[in-house]
Amino acid sequence: MKENSFVSADEIRSAFSAAMSVMYREEVPAYGTLMELVAKVNADTLAADATLKDRLEATCSLDRISEERHGAIRLGTPAELSMMRRVFAVMGMYPVGYYDLSTAGVPVHSTAFRPVGDAALKRNPFRVFTSLLRLDLIANESLRAEAEVILRERRIFTSGAIELTEKAERDGGLDEADAERFVAEVLETFRWHDKANVSTDMYKRLHDAHRLIADVVSFKGPHINHLTPRTLDIDKVQALMPEYGIAPKAVVEGPPTRKCAILLRQTSFKALGEPVSFRDGEGAWKTGSHTARFGEIEQRGIALTPKGRSLYDRLLDESRRIVRPAADGSNAKQYEAALAQAFGAFPDSWAEIREAGLGYFSYSLTEKGRQTKLAGRRDIDALVAEGLVEFDPIVYEDFLPVSAAGIFQSNLGDGAQQEFVASPNQKRFEADLGVAVLNEFDHYAGIEQASIESCLQALSVAMAAE
Ligand code: OOG
Ligand code: NI
Question: A Pfam family this protein belongs to (predicted)?
Answer without folding.
Answer: HGLS
